[in-house]
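I would like you to sit down with the record closing this message with an eye to the fold:
=====
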Amino acid sequence: MTAARRNRKACPARIFAGILLACAAVLPGTTGLRAAATSEQVVLDRHTGLAIHGFDPVAYFTDARPAVGRKQLELSFAGVIWRFRNAGNRAAFAEHPDIYMPRFGGYDPVAVGRGVATPGHPHLWLVADDRLYLFHSLEAQSTFAADPEQAIAAAQARWADVRNTLIP
């Protein structure tokens, strides 16, 4: 490493600025979270273009657990690619995507209820009122589980405004 590069790497101002940017990206109520979390109408993996990171949305209902879908069993819907474990799950989704697709496009309903689009994680999930919900954190999942009706109502009331902040 050259001396100039070592000096740039060790610059306290650069380190402090990096820490501030990182904090802004994760602290609720900051503009960083909103900018980082709002991107698409349906949460997708930016590297692969897959909805819910390639997990089969129907498996949450049929197997009561997340299951990775197969590349050979893909379906394009709502501008993203969905993967499925078997042809039956793909057919069920194709016939009723509004039932099997995660509610609020896969964004955490607790965050949506607060007016923020925070992507949910496929391993943090619940099915309530025959709909799939994904969560950003265990805390959000617990908050939702404590009073699903209230959390859904709050998210539904804010969803139109939150959705308008997303790139179509």
Observations:
- The chain has a mean pLDDT of 81.
- The chain has nine helices and four strands.
- The chain has two domains: 1-37, 38-164.
